Amino acid sequence: MSLGTQGHGTAAGLVTPATIFVVLTLLVPLALLFRYSLNAFVPGQFMVDALTLENYVKFFTDPFYTAVLWRTFRIALLVTVICLFVGFPLAYVLARTRSRYKNLLLIGVVLPLFVGNAVRAAGWMVAFGAKGVVNASLMGLGVIATPLDIMFTETAVIIGITAVNLPFMVLSLQSVIEGIDRSVEEAAFNLGAPPWRMIGRVLVPLAAPGIVAGCILTFILGMNAYATPVLIGGPRFQTMGPLVYGQFVEQNNWPFGGAIAFILMTATLLLTMASSLLLRRRRVAD
Amino acid sequence: MARLELSGLSKTYGAVTTVRDVSLDVPDGEFLVLLGPSGCGKTTTLRMVAGFVDPSAGRVTLGGEDITHRPPWRRNTGMVFQNYALFPHMSVAENVAFGLEMRKVPKPEREQRALAALGLVRLSQYAARLPRQLSGGQQQRVALARALAIRPDVLLLDEPLSNLDAKLREEVRVEIRQLQKQLGLTAVMVTHDQEEALTMADRLVVMAEGAIRQVGSQQDLYERPADRFVAGFVGRSTFLQGRVAEPGVFQTEGGLRLACDPAARSGPAVMAVRPEAIHLHPGAEDNSLSGTVEFTSYLGPVLELHVRLSPTERVVLHMPNRGGTPAAGLGESVTIGWPRAAGMVFSEAA
Ligand SMILES: Nc1ncnc2c1ncn2[C@@H]1O[C@H](COP(=O)(O)OP(=O)(O)OP(=O)(O)O)[C@@H](O)[C@H]1O
Ligand SMILES: [Mg+2]
């Protein structure tokens, strides 16, 4: 009995620093931010104390801002879907390979994360710019007459964020697939399941925890992407992350910036929760 | 239920040949056991039948159809895996019905057939459970029911009992054998446990280093082993190294002269003798030797004695335990012997 209480004491002692850290660095700033978002903004006077929903109303009534929110959501969703479909085969191969070079392959997958966002974006520019490698080759081969607009488009941003998020998806999936016994797949084949039925009926259901985790991670990262849309999307391409930053730093409008930040956070949270609830419901119904 | 034929089946990984020219004919309804030491290619052979390993050479024919290069899902073989390989996210009933689901059997019929298959292994009452809620033995019986439910042309079992404890092993062993007979199934089982192999098989195949050493009944393998390896692998034997000096005389390296089959080829050879073929106090036996008891061990139905015959040679003998005081104690000098026919001679001439 005394052991039990002692154990509890130790556990509490172990988590206290982490708790304090989270409260100080995350919850306090968030609370402050929320308070600011209810303040008023008077040009020239910076921030005026108030308790108003004005900033939120402004966001949802201006089609420009709702369009930004919708675009951000669309990009995050597409990126998540692409990551899932590209990442799953990759994760499968990684999980099942008996090659001596498995660790090298793993490093290859996370390699993009070793390169900073700015460096990566510069790379994309070299590849996809009007005078970039892709356009130069295509024009040189006579396939196209005028350079393709790849940079500064939504497509470019989606490709860019996908490249950043893919490793997270692959790692989430790979660890779960590694835990699935290979002989279970063979049993399915043996019982008459062709590969696609084996995948649908055995592999995917068993990998579901990894799929959910990977999708949530990718979606959150996609919704909140900042550097990639700014660097690859160009100055006139707006998503939620850069919008928040712009309000704070360029417009000095902290209340509105705070409101947008909260809308972004809430939207991300709600969509994530809704999708996992939906998934759970479907799995129970099965 | 069909006849299975393997002809010239081989598998090579890079420079290493793990299965070499295996040819077997398994008639309809036979229970064939592949027996051999670890790494001899048993699993690889079985997996070539199931379609998980693509043969480098040779053919697999099932029910008269060449299935050598057919994918596993179009073969109708029923495999039972060593680690059960049940689908952890499906109930026992769903597991058993899976093969029928893949064959597009309508739901009511497949539920009924799954229940019937579960009935065969006496697990109907566990239909709604998840595999992890069952014991190891029950899980393996579910796996068996799952393989039987599809009415396979051949049942393939890869060490199906090795994860079970001794008592359960015996139970499931009997269960598999009874069902196989009752359903008239052709079955191929892989094991490295010779007791399991001897008790279950209609016919046995002994493999070593990827090749078949001998095919035959229990009696064939035990009484007429094809070579030294089989003599040592199936049952126990004492091996005496030496040469056939003249027709019917085997001279051991330690200098013993033993009577043997007059047909044995002269030259370097090894003689194998089964422990129960050696008698204490031989009568009119063909070989009679004196030695010292060096080791005794009480095995229940038999007593085991190790008797030294020469500085380099010692034989193991089993004598029936008739109770009372042991016939020979440690350190005692004894006379032992065995009939001429019990000395199996394998020529080792290059
Ligand atoms: N994919 C593979 N690549 C290379 N070598 C392999 C492969 N699969 C099996 N082998 C080799 O083939 C040989 C035979 O393997 P197999 O699994 O058939 O043996 P086994 O008789 O079933 O042994 P055990 O009783 O230990 O299960 C082994 O030496 C093994 O290392
Ligand atoms: Mg094996």
Helix content of chain B: 10-25%
Number of strands of chain B: 20
pLDDT < 50 runs, ≥5 residues of chain B: none
Q: DSSP strand (E) fraction of chain B?
A: 25-35%
The CATH superfamily of chain A is known as MetI-like
* Radius of gyration of chain A from CA coordinates: 24 Å
Proportion of residues in helical segments of chain A: over 70%
CATH topology name of the largest domain in chain B: Rossmann fold
Number of helices of chain B: 8
Overall 3D form of chain B: elongated
What order do the helices and strands of chain A follow? HEEHHHHHHHHHHH
- At the fold tier of CATH, the topology name of chain A is MetI-like fold
Distance between the termini of chain B: 44 Å
Query: Which ions and ligands are bound to the chains?
Result: adenosine-5'-triphosphate, magnesium ion
Looking at the chains present, what oligomeric state does this protein adopt? heterodimer
Total of DSSP H or I helical runs spanning 4+ residues of chain A: 12
Give a quick account of the main beta sheet of chain A: strands, pairing sense, barrel closure.
2 strands, antiparallel
By secondary-structure content and strand pairing, the structural class of chain A works out as mainly alpha
Protein name (chain B): ABC transporter ATP-binding protein
Keywords (chain B): ATP-binding, Nucleotide-binding, Transport
Pfam families (chain B): ABC_tran, TOBE_2
GO molecular function (chain B): ATP binding
